[in-house]
């Protein structure tokens, strides 16, 4: 499946799904129950189980550890696994589970970022985190999350389930195909390198067997502190932090005023110029650099991506960033289910794609965690425990997989893990969503779009 085919698949699937709701917009049952949010279960009460040692917490710890380890390595977070785990196994209500899922994603992303900034780029003398791409996608991702949270109270639950299945199946399939292509290329490269090591000829024509030469200009070995300082770019970090603070203030102010009031829409709409301003500045920067290099005949990539930074490609990245954030807002994930595969699609190598995606998710998930904390949407003891599990999982997952990639010389392993996590999330969320939608149908609940202001 090509990039163009994937985009057409997603657009057509989303269009058919949304249009189908029009046939269910009228409530056929006048006395039916109307949920206030697609994410609310049949019982809308807040359910917070006690934090105590039992088989549920043991199983949740195991699933959370494996999900965080694999999710951060693939750069997808793991929200599609955490939310069903917290509702079905631990017993939280869906809204609290979505909030706790953000806490787990934040913990795993933070520990992964701490690990990644202490390792060098595998092929170039640049930071392993691509800050240009992070600054390009972060504002659109945050904007999309805001839109997704708003749509979560409007969209019917069954429609969210269908959209998640369409999106996850498409991106996981494309990522798997990408991984297979990389595996084949790596196999060919390894065979060629093996042949070169087996048969070498010196300057006098003598045959040398199993001889290895050190490079004429050896790569300079840096200490861990030097790598850490090299990977940190304070200018980019300052801009991202200011963007994070601006969105947080707007969210706090928006939550303190009446829903759908004039000030509510003022604070909501102010997010657009802030996000578009940062995105536009970075887009113009990449566009100008691309034009300058073309004029000088320099074909080297501006950043980790190997695409041409034209207006069409920049618009495509903006739409994908908003889409990823919207899905993150609907699902309770960090938006990595779109960002991870997208970075691979535009030519970023797996190690950099994983590091950059987790770096971006650290900002977006932490924003949601602070907001949920102010709204008292999750129990603090449970959040601290699950964050501790995710922090350990994120660090050791990165450590183990990076070592495995180095030993086997197969970066495609990262892509296969990414594809597997997305596919597993599609199956889990699909089964849970279908089961819940059937119960809603049996209870004669409204299956169309809800009013935004009346559903808050």
UniProtKB/TrEMBL annotation:
GO terms (BP aspect): protein ubiquitination
InterPro entries: TM_pro_TauE-like (IPR002781)
Main subcellular location of this protein, as a coarse class: membrane
Domain of life the protein comes from: Eukaryota
Protein name per Swiss-Prot or TrEMBL: TauE domain-containing protein
UniProt GO cellular component terms: Cul4A-RING E3 ubiquitin ligase complex; membrane
Presence of keyword Transmembrane: yes
Family: Belongs to the 4-toluene sulfonate uptake permease (TSUP) (TC 2.A.102) family.
Transmembrane residue ranges: 7-24, 57-90, 137-169, 232-250, 262-281, 302-332, 352-375, 382-401, 413-434
Location relative to the cell: Membrane
Membrane topology: Multi-pass membrane protein
Pfam family, one: TauE
Keywords assigned by UniProt, alphabetized: Membrane, Transmembrane, Transmembrane helix
């Amino acid at each position: 499946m090509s990039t163009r085919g994937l985009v057409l698949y997603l657009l057509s699937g989303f269009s058919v799904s949304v249009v189908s709701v029009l046939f269910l917009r009228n409530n056929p049952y006048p006395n039916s129950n109307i949920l206030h949010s697609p994410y609310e279960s049949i019982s809308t009460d807040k359910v917070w189980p006690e934090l105590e040692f039992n088989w549920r917490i043991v199983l949740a710890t195991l699933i959370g550890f494996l999900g965080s380890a694999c999710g951060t390595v693939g750069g997808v977070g793991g929200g599609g696994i955490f939310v069903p785990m917290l509702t079905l196994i631990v017993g939280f209500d869906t809204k609290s589970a979505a909030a706790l899922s953000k806490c787990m994603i934040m913990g795993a992303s933070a520990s992964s970022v701490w690990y990644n900034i202490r390792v060098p780029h595998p092929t170039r003398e640049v930071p392993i985190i691509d800050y240009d791409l992070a600054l390009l996608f972060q504002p659109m991702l945050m904007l999309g999350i805001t839109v997704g949270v708003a749509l979560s109270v409007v969209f019917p639950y069954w429609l969210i389930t269908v959209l998640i299945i369409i999106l996850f199946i498409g991106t996981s399939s494309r990522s798997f195909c990408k991984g297979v292509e990389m595996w084949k290329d790596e196999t060919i490269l390894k065979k060629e390198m093996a042949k070169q090591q087996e048969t070498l000829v010196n300057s006098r024509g003598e045959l040398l067997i199993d001889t290895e030469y050190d490079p004429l200009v050896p790569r300079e070995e840096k200490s861990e502190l030097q790598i850490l300082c090299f990977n940190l770019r304070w200018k980019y970090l300052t801009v991202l932090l200011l963007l994070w603070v601006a969105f947080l203030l707007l969210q706090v102010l928006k939550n303190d005023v009446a829903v759908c009031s004039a000030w509510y829409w003022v604070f909501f709409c102010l997010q657009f110029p802030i996000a578009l301003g940062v995105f536009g500045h970075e887009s113009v920067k990449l566009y100008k650099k691309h034009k300058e290099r073309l004029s000088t005949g320099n074909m080297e990539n501006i950043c980790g991506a190997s695409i041409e930074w034209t207006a069409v490609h920049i618009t495509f990245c903006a739409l994908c960033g908003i889409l990823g954030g919207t899905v993150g807002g609907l699902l309770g994930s960090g938006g990595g289910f779109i960002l991870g595969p997208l970075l691979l699609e535009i030519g970023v190598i797996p190690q950099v794609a994983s590091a950059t995606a987790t770096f971006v998710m650290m900002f977006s998930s932490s924003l949601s965690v602070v907001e949920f904390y102010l709204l008292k949407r999750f129990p603090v003891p449970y959040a601290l425990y699950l964050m501790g599990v995710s922090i350990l999982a994120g660090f050791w997952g990165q450590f183990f997989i990076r070592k495995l990639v180095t030993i086997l010389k197969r970066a495609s392993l990262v892509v296969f893990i990414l594809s597997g996590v997305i596919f597993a999330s599609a199956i889990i969320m699909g089964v849970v969503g279908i089961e819940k939608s059937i119960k809603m149908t049996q209870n004669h609940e409204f299956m169309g779009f809800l009013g935004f202001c009346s559903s808050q």
